[in-house]
């Protein structure tokens, strides 16, 4: 039977009688744990922000009709030449429309599908913003604004005006910040847009949109789907893109393949479109954990050193404890509990320090053109990190304490007493 | 006649630095309430014998009985329990835990034994300190008291679990004559009034002469003082 109360009272007395040494050992742990908390909160905060930018804006599956050459050229179909090697030079894309064929039934089908969270149809129209006599090339995206806001948080990137007006007024436009600057226009002003067919449409600016990517902001604007169809001069079934958000993002690749096969159109899933973003997340997490574990190992060596020293100092105490009836295991627990107590105290202090500094970072202004809605550094306060941090502290100190404590367990009291 | 301690045919070798037969066929018995001293020249093996009798050293051949029970061959944790409950130690160097108070030092073996509630242990420890005349030092840290006082604290600690036997390795070897006499009187008194068994290794002939029986050792053998 182990009498923890007695053992802990001994280790407490040991710790308190060398409060400075114990404090320094604990500070090593505090430093490691607080760094871990700061790093992991900040890094994952950043990850979430960056992932959010990608995930918010990128559809899980993007359907469109790709203009591409036919895989099988007519010569391949010609009887008698099946087994020959046919070479066709200067292959051109097949003549087809940019629109998705049968777009409305596909939309209706997808809206009912149980795996789908939401669907937004789009019509991309090429046109020109007219600045006096100078045409600036632009892309007008015809969208259903309410859906886009709900599914892809478009409103996060609207820096001025009310995007929902797109739906409520005819001929509204949500113009890119770069284009607005070039045209010297603001919310409430009018802008002339010339379609590819040469017709000019006056549109009223309901808001200004800033994605953070200058190339996009200089060119791209949003109008309502109907306005885009009018500019293009097409019917209400003319849709060039369908964006899908699924209930489970993991299903995207499979779902995309299925839709491509089912409807004979091109379907790109988010994993293919943004393969690099997961890599970035992974590497950032790897760095966080590698740095934290390194710091904790250093702290662990500190504890190991101090306990080793203590055990040399306390040889006599160990001998007398064993002589008066404490077993080797009791002695081991006395020293291990010291290590773990140091870990616990240092770890809790580290959590507190890490949290306070994280709060500080969370309130530090961080203004960047690229992210108009972000005003302070992103920090992710996830309680799980605090649990992991404390777990790290306890495990590291446990192992740091184990080796010296085992040595103490093995000390032969006769050697010590005889040695005097 | 009951024997508190019995050793049968104990042999021990040292292998470092060279092989050396330190104890040769030691057999002896100790009656309950007896005050026995072990004498002999340096290196005759008397301390080595004491460590074997105290169960701390288990690297020997032969048999060791405490209260008629065989202790030889038992696992370490069990021997630790035996030491805790049945054997009290007093060493030449006082071996108190310096960061603990005098009272805590005395209480520790009893807390380990955990046979009595905390309050009772505390009262017992104060009683033992009272018995040894150092109750006024109870709340001082152990390293702050004098050598003679430390030795008396060590005796109080040895007594706390009401052991069957108290063993001492030169318990007065590091004390001046006044303190030495004091400590001896305490032992004598414990033996006479409480019937405690005592086994003391000593160099001090005056000390030994005042005990009930002297075991004299030479070259790893008991040459005088055995009853048989």
What attributes does this structure have?
heterodimer; A: 420 residues; alpha+beta; 2 domains; six-stranded mixed beta barrel; 10 strands; B: 228 residues; alpha/beta; Rossmann fold; six-stranded mixed beta sheet; four-stranded antiparallel beta sheet; 36% helix
How does this model look, in words?
The complex is a heterodimer of chains A (420) and B (228). Chain A is of the alpha+beta class and 420 residues long. Chain A folds into two domains: 4-55 and 277-419, no CATH class; 62-75 and 95-270, no CATH class. In chain A, 56% of the residues lie in helices and 17% in strands. Chain A has 16 helices and ten strands. Chain A has helices at 4-17, 19-57, 74-77, 103-112, 145-152, 165-168, 177-183, 214-219, 225-232, 252-263, 270-273, 275-313, 315-323, 328-362, 383-410, 413-419; strands spanning 61-64, 116-131, 134-143, 158-161, 172-176, 190-195, 200-209, 220-224, 241-246, 266-269. In chain A, β6 and β7 form a beta hairpin. In chain A, α1 (4-17) packs across α14 (328-362), α12 crosses α14 and α13 (315-323) crosses α16. Chain A starts with a helix and ends with a helix. In chain B, the strands form two sheets. Chain B has a six-stranded mixed beta sheet. Chain B has a four-stranded antiparallel beta sheet with strand order 2-1-4-5, with helices on one face. In chain B, α3 (102-113) packs across α4, α3 runs parallel beside α5 and α4 (118-131) packs across α5. Classes of the chains: A alpha+beta (420), B alpha/beta (228). The A-B interface holds A 1, 3, 5-6, 9-10, 13-14, 17, 316-317, 319-330, 412-414, 417-418, 420 and B 47, 51, 54, 56-57, 76-77, 80-85, 89, 91-93, 95-100, 104, 108-109, 111-114, 157, 161, 169.
